[in-house]
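In response to a reviewer's request, we include the raw inputs and outputs for one of the modeled complexes. The three entities were modeled together in a single run.
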Amino acid sequence: MATAHSKTAARFMISPAVVLLLAWMIVPLAMTIYFSFLRYSLMSPGEETFAGWDNYRYFLTDPAFFSAFTNTIVLVVGVLLITVVLGIALANLLDQPMWGQGIVRILVIAPFFVMPTVSALVWKNMFMDPVNGLFAHAAKALGLQPFEFLTHAPLASIIMIVSWQWLPFATLILLTAMQSLDQEQLEAAEMDGASWWRRFFYIVLPHLSRAITVVVLIQTIFLLSVFAEILVTTNGGPGTASTNITYLVYAQSLLQFDVGGGSAGGIVAVILANIVAIFLMRMIGKNLEA
Amino acid sequence: MKLFARALVGVSALALLASPALAETITIATVNNGDMIRMQKLSGEFTAQNPDIELEWVTLEENILRQRVTTDVATKGGQYDVMTIGTYEVPIWGSKGWLVSLNDLPASYDIDDILPAIRGGLTVDGELMAAPFYGESSMVMYRKDLMAKAGLEMPDAPTWDFIAEAARAMTDKDNEIYGACLRGKAGWGENMAFLTAMSNSFGAKWFDMDWNPQFTSDAWKETLTFYVNLLNDAGPPGASNNGFNENLSLFQTGKCGMWIDATVAASFVTNPNDSQVADQVGFALAPDTGLGKRGNWLWAWSLAIPAGTQKEEAAKKFVAWATSKEYLELVASNEGWANVPPGTRTSLYENPEYAKVPFAQMTLDSINSADPKNPTIDPVPYVGVQFVAIPEFQGIATSTGQQFSAALAGSTSIEDALQNAQNLTEREMKRAGYIK
Amino acid sequence: MARAVTNQRKLVVTVIAWSIGIAIFFPILWTFLTSFKTEAEAIASPPSFLFFEWTTENYTEVQSRSNYPLHFMNSVIISLGSTVLGLLIAIPAAWSMAFVPGKRTKDVLMWMLSTKMLPPVGVLIPIYLIFRDTGLLDTRTALVIVLTLINLPIIVWMLYTYFKEIPGEILEAARMDGATLWSEVIYVLTPMAVPGIASTLLLNVILAWNEAFWTLNLTAAKAAPLTAFIASYSSPEGLFYAKLSAASTMAIAPIVILGWFSQKQLVRGLTFGAVK
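The model returned the following structure tokens for the whole complex.
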């Protein structure tokens, strides 16, 4: 029923958003691309010279680049796995009748409201610290040697912290989806003698697939640029054990003040993110079709 | 609605009254270190004396602060009128013309009273580019009770071998006593400051006279091996994440036998309000290996004014106040002489009251024994004890710091860490055009 | 008999759910409790849970060092301002995508989302230069603009999914009655989408409140929100667990409380079209 008139109006109404986002994307992007071909150190402004592909070659041959690349993937996939699996379990649990459901739900979603900086600081100092942290106290009480989380399992620790922040989000979306599940269908399956596992795999999981897709999509967007948690807890170390691409670009542009190299890194990160994006959209776009 | 409008008028009238038309607001960026926080608290004295100046504070953690002020000064963002920077930044920024010269501070400020070692590091072409707020070297802080328990006695000028022996003797892991607390957290101002100063006393250096990196030298291998072994045997758990602040907490809560770090920490560890071991702390010079250099550094947190600020006069007034003799007296009368920002003025060390402070002499001796112009045993082309005063240094040292922190954590071998450090330093130096 | 089983089961579920809920909430609770301890008690081993001398000295200390009301107001203005501005831009866009979909609508939507994948650090210097030249550094305006833009894709997407649930016939009926496009959007569509708009608003206020890269890098003193406030407590000299806890509590309390009070609203809308 879309008339020519309403089509024009629609273009008109969508345009502010599109124009603004285009500007937001293109202006900095163009500047970044321009900078990425310059030898440009923030410490010597005004002395920029054309550098050709030097900055790119330099960034891509950085020994830290490969580990940053794999760390980024491990971080994203790790957090996704943990939050989706635990999110499904929690959503199933919270969907059961119980006393004080509202309060439990409040407790479970609380981490989502906490600033990443704060949660990283709290976890690092008050829980994971090997001398004064709560985990260390607990280990000592049990007669064990405290585990040095950020030294011996830096990436895993960060995955844990980030998962803690995103688990509420996954749980909420999955819980909403659970609540729209057709109970009669489940009961009928139970009557037919289908085991709990079979019911879960053949009825519940397919029903949740759309919600899982949404969780994966939204979280991936945020997880690709995890930064504050790394900066606060490990500074990307020891070595490069917990450096992701975002952190590497940060180190290049704001610790070394190499704007040219940092810009090249930024462009590389944009390209990688877009590859992930296309991949994701393909996979998910289908699932999201109405 | 009417009520709301009336309230609004009232509020804006109040706001007009509250800000005198002539008041000038200066924005001060500073580190969240104890002495600066005290300055912020005492700054009411300054605004009382200068009612036409208002102060706005931006207090940030060291790394974030450094990144913020560097971005701002290099892009001429103009967000700050006074910046807290260190001995590393001042010569580089000063020679680029980013800072306002302070040579014209009033005579009552007495520039000649500033300790020569500190003043030298803040002067570019005869112009004082920043006023030192506190100056520091590094020294050994140790627990007298634990030292006695171990049956040892700390000499005034220990060797590294003695430190290693004492640290292992003091360590009692079951009771959470660790003989040696040293910086392990990656960062050019953290583990690399310590290791670079330490390596000087082992005869190592960053670069030879042709700017070739020297990490594959025997002296560096010896330094790193000594450091890693010492911390593995006698250091606290998680040492590779400990910086100055983490070690300070450990020492204050009685978990360290010895701590080799900034002299400015002496006032914190001897302050009974914060430290559980305040009455048991002894001091000694930073260790050596008998080769002629000690492993102590030289640093001064200083207040500088970025060129291009519209409020130069007000900013200068503030800088002069915060680094003056009168400020030292103000702190002394409020919090006692031990809490005065140390290491900046000769007159402070001539003051008989200050001489009673247990760490005063040792701090002065440490500062005077550091020589940024000749930091190493062999000649080098650079200036700086625990850093190399070239713009590329912070980037390079941050990455090498990561490697050494990984060696300490055990995720890389010492040989690999040194080789990686060598490679990445070579890479950066080539890129910057120092070597072919 | 059956009823007993259900009650027993309910009890088991309750116990498990409560334990997990408390475990997940524990870090926040612990931070809150620690903020009332002295520094010495904050690191005491074994730690005391409730039986310590409660003190508010940390809050006094934090208050004397930082201008909390200023940071708080900045956070409120920036997060609300950017969300409202974002909604004003996004509502028409989402409307046209939902009701007048073109061939490219899906692509536009996905492209919008992909702009969120730009790593902010990569474009900091250009943005910093732009704001310097426009005199917007350290202003709330700059942060409202930036946060509006970075959250706009999420806002558009959320609204789009709600609008799509609204049957087109209702709009058609309104149109038959002679409603213009604007009155259709304002009087028919918006009221029906209020729950969706409300939860979009809530989610974006939360996201904007917690954004810590741009808010820290584009501000100094005047416009600095709570994310900058917390950065001055992140690792000071000496013992700081109790002060850190107090500052953390002050930084997150407003948004946690808002979240709790509005959680029903948030949850109802927080589906991103996941529920059919």
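As requested, we also summarize the result in words. Chain A is about 75% helix and 0% strand. The two ends of chain A are 19 Å apart (CA to CA).
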